[in-house]
């Protein structure tokens, strides 16, 4: 199984702004994606073409060696154009594991959708078996989805920590 098949799932987002003597943290709670998930919007989603109503992950947080159930609902304000792209980045700590751009239509069939994606309500229900061999640690994911004209469909980030499960010997 490829990590890229988990597109609608995980990433990182919190930003800090520094001045000469103070650090102000951005209130990013308004960037939280509705539902039971670790997802955040990359920025204010009001200009995105996809209005996400909710994304639920079970279990949340995901666990290595278990099935991850994903249920999501949203509305496309306009059709997704042929040639739409997704930029996917996955990091393990500071190490980039994946940094690639791909045609969105190459991925939507993995979640039982098909191109072209038409304007209107969208629903995604998918179960993905996560491998037991996922190394423990913090993973950050970025999924930036856009049309050929660069209009933003959505951008999501998440941070997921996989912990060592076992008999306590480690």
Describe this structure in words.
The chain has a five-stranded antiparallel β-sheet with strand order 3-10-9-6-7. By secondary structure, the protein is mainly β. The protein has one helix at 105-108; strands at 16-18, 23-25, 39-41, 50-58, 67-76, 85-92, 95-103, 120-129, 137-146, 152-162.
Please name the defining characteristics of this protein.
single chain, 170 residues, mainly beta, 3-stranded antiparallel sheet, 10 strands, 2% helix, 45% strand, disordered N terminus
Global Rg: 17 Å
Number of helical stretches of at least 4 residues: 1
As a percent range, the share of helical residues equals under 10%
Strand order of the largest sheet: 3-10-9-6-7
Q: H/E element string?
A: EEEEEEEHEEE
Which stretches are poorly predicted, pLDDT < 50 over at least 5 residues?
1-25
Share of residues in strands:
35-45%
Mean pLDDT: 81
How far apart lie the N and C ends?
27 Å
Q: What is the overall silhouette?
A: globular
- Main structural class: mainly beta
What about the largest sheet? 5 strands, antiparallel
The count of β-strands is 10
């Amino acid at each position: 199984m490829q990590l890229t098949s988990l597109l609608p799932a995980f990433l990182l987002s919190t930003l800090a702004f520094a001045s000469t003597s103070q650090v102000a943290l951005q209130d990013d709670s308004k960037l939280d994606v509705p539902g039971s998930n670790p997802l955040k919007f990359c920025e204010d989603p009001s200009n995105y073409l996809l209005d996400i109503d909710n994304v639920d992950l079970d279990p949340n947080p995901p666990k290595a060696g278990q099935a991850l159930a994903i249920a999501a609902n949203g509305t496309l304000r306009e059709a997704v154009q042929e040639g739409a792209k997704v930029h996917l980045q996955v990091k393990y700590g500071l190490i980039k594991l994946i940094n690639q751009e791909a045609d969105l239509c190459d991925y939507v069939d993995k979640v039982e959708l098909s191109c072209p994606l038409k304007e209107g309500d969208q629903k995604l229900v998918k179960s993905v078996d996560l491998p037991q061999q996922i190394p423990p640690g913090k993973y950050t994911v970025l999924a930036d989805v856009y049309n050929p004209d660069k209009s933003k469909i959505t951008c999501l980030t998440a941070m997921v920590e996989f912990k060592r499960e076992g008999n306590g010997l480690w």
